[in-house]
Amino acid sequence: MGAMNPNKALWEKGDFTRIAATMRESGEELVATLAIEPGMKVLDVGCGDGTTALPAAKRGAEVLGVDIASNLVEAGNRRAREMGLTNCRFQEGDASDLRALADQSFDLVMSIFGAMFAPKPQEVAKEMVRVTKRGGRIVMGNWIPGDPTLVAQILKISSAYTPPPPEGFVSPMMWGIESHVIERFSGAGIAPANIRFDRETFTFRSSNSPAAIVDDFRKFYGPTMNAFEAAAKSGRAEALQGELEALFKSHNQSGSDTRTTIPATFLRVTVAMP
Ligand SMILES: C[S@@+](CC[C@H](N)C(=O)[O-])C[C@H]1O[C@@H](n2cnc3c(N)ncnc32)[C@H](O)[C@@H]1O
Prior knowledge:
alpha/beta; seven-stranded mixed sheet
């Protein structure tokens, strides 16, 4: 199936654990705001190697992480084992088709920069609603298109080096626009009054330089790997590298050229299940 599902192939192509290493602290901080209590049943969709799933388990929740990439599922299970967390497990699955999971089985369904990357956004909304208990919550973290901060700017730069997407392609970034989010959850039976939006900051942190982080994106982040492959075909890989390095450097707020602290704005979506 791997080779036939481009969505899965994209995320298995690299090694997102290398990028996630810069996201651990902000992941913990975000989870701290979710009012997670011991015994709560939590689903993390598009969980990667557990940046938010593991902190939720540390707070005593019963956590299931679902991700389409088998290498990240494996990495998540390894990290849970290493941390001695028996209340957190990871399994392969697709945000747009969570058939392995029963209706209304989670108190909290979270997806931090995860489900936004699945095709068929309408199905994603329906599936997240289906598996959430009445009175439960869905919390999504979504990047915002056209935003001046890091992630939207990486996309903007990269897209200038890649062929236009096929007709009918729906950008994952549409999950960062409130009207689209409302439309998608409305299609899943959720009234707009039950959806709340907040703009928040997620900070990428590393003890390495901004240029070293760009290297990690180039070598390990599927979408950026593809941008570099496309750029190389037109002899522009070094131009892309230069633009990304300038971007990362200009956003670095660490006060040092050898360490990285880059804040980025995201849209937090909270759905209160009636
Ligand atoms: C940017 S990463 C974020 C990972 C993690 N939530 C974090 O914050 O570190 C996006 C994740 O979504 C996963 N993903 C992409 N499409 C998916 C889909 N259709 N179903 C489930 N997971 C998916 C990728 O494999 C990847 O782990």
